[in-house]
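Hi W., the iron/sulfur cluster complex you wanted:
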Amino acid sequence: MRAETVRRIAHECGFELAGVASCDPPEDFARYQDWVASGMAGEMRYLTDRRAEMRRDARNLLPNARSVICVGKLYNTPDPPREEGHARISRYAWGKDYHVTMRAALERMSARLLEIERFDWKICVDTAPLLERSFARLAGLGWIGKNTCLINEPLGSWFFLGEILTSLDLEPTSPPPDRCGSCTRCIEACPTDALVPDGSGWTLDARRCISYLTIELRGPIPEDLRAGMGEHVFGCDICQDVCPWNARAPVTQDPDFAGAPIPLVELARLSAEDFHRRFGSSAIARAKHAGLLRNVAVVTSNMAGPGGQNHH
Ligand code: SF4
Ligand code: SF4
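Structure:
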């Protein structure tokens, strides 16, 4: 099969970005290992336990893999109107859980490809132990910015990534150049200084990142980072919002990704049952009921004014 055919079918299946990488182990693995060893992954065990080693080689997931088909789905929906007292929620979590929608679209795409030729395959979305951003870069989808996101020129960085590992030997796409240049906007805008130098560039100290603190961390949020959380109750998009490559990024009207503003008081009153009913099929479920209430308490305190954040 030709890589061009794969890209065309990916576009027909709704993916704005598509490309192919060889399944040879990405050089980035050593950097990833250093990052894990430095402790910057915090308590995200799925990144640091035995699954870390699995990321060395995609063939740990599909032994006869030859190529990685990488796709990106734009989720840059219009901002819902923001009013005082509304919770700030990361854009990726506004709509339905993207793991479900991405997997369904990748399954449709695999079925289309299998009509052309038989092959072995495995679908990966986000949680699979695969260096998905590295493969996406190698497949030509974009470069990895100083904010650690994959950025495409001209489409920006509001993308969900997914992969089909395949036994097909497809011609790889070539990676684009890094276009961050001398820009440092994301580093300066990060309220908790979570983007840090790592010797060969910039990396994310997840332990300081609002996304990690509000979604992955269990237990109390370290006091010195509470004020930096501002109004963020789930995730943080600041380092993408300020990126000049997103200024003219296209907007999708896909209703699956659209959001509606949620008043903070409404979240504060959710019982465990309400939480599961309301967010059970959303990415917000990952924060758990206790985590979301913890975040709402910190944000409420932050909004109460200076000094308020110290009283939790
Ligand atoms: S998501 Fe927010 S806290 Fe995390 S690195 Fe980006 S700006 Fe900083
Ligand atoms: S804000 Fe600037 S430095 Fe940061 S990712 Fe975007 S272009 Fe790169």
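Strands lie at 17-22, 67-74, 88-89, 121-124, 143-144, 150-151, 159-166, 195-197, 202-204, 232-234.

W.
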